[in-house]
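Fig. S4 source data, part A: sequence.
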Amino acid sequence: MYEGEIAIGPIHSAILEPHRLRLFIEDEIIKDAELTIGVNHRGIERLMEGLPPEKATILTEKICGICSHIHLWSAVRVCEIGSDIEVPERANHIRVIVEELERLHSHTLLFGHAFEILGHETMSMRAFMLREPIMQTLFDISGSRVQYSCPIIGGIRPRCDIKDSQISAYLERMEKYEDALNKIIGRTINDPLLVSRMKDIGVLDRKTAAKYHALGPTARGSGIKSDMRKMGYVPEYDCFEFDEIILDDGDVYARVAVRFYECIESVKIIKQALKELPSLPEKFYNPNYEIKEFKPIDCYTEAQRGQQYYTYGVDNEGRVRQAKVRTPTATNLACMEEVLKDYHVSDAELIVASCDPCFTCTDRLIILREQNNK
């Protein structure tokens, strides 16, 4: 029997962000695993200290290119809650639309990478083709495909307001996206080779998911309710009808399937928000806000990968203090590190990818905390 170690990373062809995965094996079966992150450290929270909220919030958008909107929206919400700033309903609806579009592009991106790891290049390219109209819609709304800079304190930027003349075109794109997604779902669940590579692989049972505090689709794939939008933490979603997708199997297939069906729910939310926009007040920004001094405020949102936590306070000089950001990937990766055991080496990167890790989000303050501990 061969016993040894296989090291993967810091570069992998399908998971683009750098990480290092050490697999301790017997023959080709994983007996233990160690996942190392920290390559992308930039110290965002330290950079936020002492900045005015208007500048500090914009800085948070640089944390991640895939989930830039939810970072900025979370940071803006902290200031709005702490200073009792009223946000026009139209602005909240557009923030929701952009966030759900971002969820669609993020989940569809994962589908592309997952199919690539599975060796199905055709389905991978089709997933990226499916994602393109979503990226085009984000570009039409914001003028950017990566960092949209949509929310600002008190509302949204004027360029991000959606005109009545654009609504019908966006609704049509959502219809086409949903039809194409359903075809990909059908092709996936009816392909015995694809299903065999995902079914009963990387099983994260409910007990282990709770122990390691799994979040988002990773938790919901193991039967745990975890959607902040449904738990009342994001009241901007209270006026929309949508379902929380929960599956019990806990394997790679379940985690991918949760995201498939979450895309359908996101389309449902976007359609509702677009159809309600014409009846809302034209105002999309509250220019008369005043930032008050406040102690650190807790703010939870539902990012594409799960619960996202933001907190900071503002001192009497109007400067940000005690900024802290917690993203869902850290605990989800801890779950994946645990469930890798007893599976085949060829399944390792697929299992890691199934929690849709964002290493850049996770690496914000790793080095700084290690230095502080010394």
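Fig. S4 source data, part B ends here. The longest strand covers residues 294-303.
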